Amino acid sequence: MRWYVDRWLRTEVDPGIRFSRTLPCTWGLSLHPCAAYFLTSCGDDPAVLIQAIRWHWSIENALHWVLDVTFREDDSRVRDRTAARNLALLRKIALNLVARDRRGRASRRGRRKIVTWNDDYMLQIITGQAHA
């Protein structure tokens, strides 16, 4: 990280963006200001960069939320880095396979549970023969 800071100290461009917002406190009684800082080499207008940052985090948060609700990913106790990466990849593959099936009104979590209970349905999901 030091090389990155040294590099930016030698430039004449302001590499930082300060993104401010107001969030509720954890107990929800009041609001407090919060700031996030982003380093970038992009010379675009800050308004364009902030929109790109918001777009990136909206996708990131949506995927994480779905994985947490569907697979309770935050409760995972896997500590080995390689195993954690492999399980995260398998969860994403499973999520995509289950999301393709549009029959019924079951949620993704519900469809994931049905797959674990019904081997025929699991085979349909894996082979892509489930109703779209």
List the secondary-structure elements in sequence, H or E: HEEHHHH
> Termini separation (Å)?
47 Å
User: Could you tell me the radius of gyration in angstroms?
Assistant: 21 Å
| Global morphology | elongated
Sheet-strand content, in percent, reads 5-15%
Please mark out the parts with pLDDT under 50 across 5 or more consecutive residues, or reply none.
Answer: none
Total count of helical runs of at least 4 residues = 5
The count of strands amounts to 2
Mean pLDDT: 77
Structural class, please?
Answer: alpha+beta
Give the strand order, joined by hyphens, for the main sheet. Answer: 1-2
Query: Considering DSSP H and I runs of 4 or more, what fraction of the residues is helical?
Result: 55-70%
Describe the structure.
The chain is of the alpha+beta class and 132 residues long. The chain has a domain of 43 residues. Helices cover 55% and strands 14% of the residues. A hairpin with a 6-residue loop joins β1 and β2. The protein starts with a helix and ends in a 5-residue tail after the last helix. 5% of the residues are buried.
Brief write-up:
The chain is α+β, with helices and mostly antiparallel strands and 132 residues long. Helices cover 55% and strands 14% of the residues. β1 (16-24) and β2 form a beta hairpin.
What characteristics describe this protein?
55% helix; two-stranded antiparallel sheet; 5 helices; alpha+beta; 132 residues
SSE topology sketch:
Blueprint lengths: L1 H8 L6 E9 L6 E9 L6 H26 L9 H20 L7 H10 L1 H9 L5
Antiparallel strand pairs: 1-2
Helix pairs in contact: 3-4, 4-5
